[in-house]
Write a structure and sequence with these properties.
65 residues
């Protein structure tokens, strides 16, 4: 198993354009991965995310791609 430090995560290794992502919510919300997705998502392109309820405040109209 390959272990990565959070700042070193390159989501292009795991996500491709056109992928659909379901994101956990409440206590299961993976905030570190969501922050990486917000930072890198536009570079990957054409991603769709389903988020039912987010309490972290990471998702906002400003972070929408």
């Amino acid at each position: 198993m390959n272990v990565l430090a959070a700042p070193d995560i390159d989501l292009r290794e795991f996500l491709r354009p056109g992928d659909h992502i379901v994101i956990g919510q409440a206590c299961g919300e993976p905030t570190t991965l969501i922050e990486a997705l917000v930072a890198q998502g536009n570079d990957i392109g054409d991603l769709t995310a389903f988020v039912a309820t987010s309490f972290s405040g990471i998702f906002s109209p400003e972070t929408a791609g």
